[in-house]
Structures are given as structure tokens and as C-alpha cells.
Amino acid sequence: MLTVIAIIGVIASILIPTISKIRATSQRTHCASNLRQIGIGINLYANEHEGVLPGGLNEGQNGLYKGESSGSLAAFIAPYVDGTLYKSGVSLKNELFVCPSWEALRVSGVCYAMNMRVPIDGGDTWIEPFGRATGSKKPIRLYQISDPLPNVPAIYEVDRKNIKANGGPIGQSATWDPVHGNVRNVLYFDGSVRTENVD
Asked: How are beta strands 153-157 and 112-114 bridged, if at all?
């Protein structure tokens, strides 16, 4: 009897870490898929609006919106990713903007941040591609980004170690460490998503 219990204990000690790794990989892949769908929505929006990116936007994105004036990317791309259009007086949430690893940790707040500073002309000049929700800056046309689009991040995962992505108040609700361990998912302006090592 003790031998059977010992064998079950050994098997459990092997299986539990393996299952945890599989779950983490699944969540990271789901997060990358969400970002890829967001990228498709951004590009479809730009295609229908003479190349103009959606905006003005807030830096932090959590998927909550009450129309395009809310500064939420979800409001602008809703017709392209899930078909849910804003109705007057109704708050909506697009689950694409919630990383499953954040849900698993029960973290509230913002898990994605827009890249609000893109270098042009060799890096000496910066533009804000999505404009500002305050209206102080208007969104630009996609072709105005002079670097090749596969080299320019559009959306980052937010954590307190990723200062360049969140540099402001949105970082206050972020996790201390990246939710995917030693990597983050990043959406680029060409629509590709890469899992990048944390430096």
C-alpha cells in the first residue's frame, strides 16, 4: 500500500509542473492570438479610413469602451474584430484586450499599452501614431511611419519592468513582473506578433 502511495506521489510530482508549463504556454499563445486579431482590426480600420490609424487613444488599453470618444482602441476596431457596435449609454468590453495570464492572476487594470512614440527620419523626430484621446494630437496615416513596419511595435504587454511601454500612470496597476515569465508578446505595425525575451 505504501509503495502504491509513493508511486502516485512520484507521478504527481512529475505531472504537476508539466501541466503548469502547458497552461502557461497556452495562455501565452492565446495572448499572442488576441494581439494578432487586434492587429488585423487596426489594419482593416486603416484600410477603410484612407490609411489613418484609429485614434485618438489612451496609452493603456483594457477593452472597455463607450464609443470612439472613450480613447479605447476596442471602440474603433469593434466592427472588424467582433462585430459589436457601440450603443448609446451602454458600456462594452472586448475580451481581446485581456491577456488570459492576467485573468489567471486576477490582476485588474491595463494589460496592453499603445506605442505612443514612434521615431521617424532616422530617430531624431518622434510622432504619436494613434494621436491622443484628449484630441491634442490626431492619429497619423500608416505610411507616415518611416521605419519598416515589421520593426515598429504598435502594442506592448504592460508590467512595471517595461517602462518604455507604460512610462506613466498606467503602470500603477500593472504586475511587477511580466505575466509570461521571461518573455512578453508584442504586436508590430505590420500585424505580426512576436514573443520577445525580457532584457
From this structure: antiparallel
Contact criterion met (CB below 8 Å) for 47 and 142:
no
| Beta pairing, strands 125-127 & 193-197 | unpaired
DSSP letter for each residue of 71-137? --HHHHHHHHHT-----TT--EE-GGGS-HHHHHHT--S--EEE---EEEGGGTEEE-TT--TTSSS
Reported pTM: 0.83
Tens digits of residue pLDDT in 43-67: 999 999 999 999 999 888 888 777 6
At 163, which amino acid appears?
A: I
Alpha-carbon span 42 to 154, nearest angstrom: 10
Say if residues 179 and 99 touch (Cβ distance below 8 Å): yes
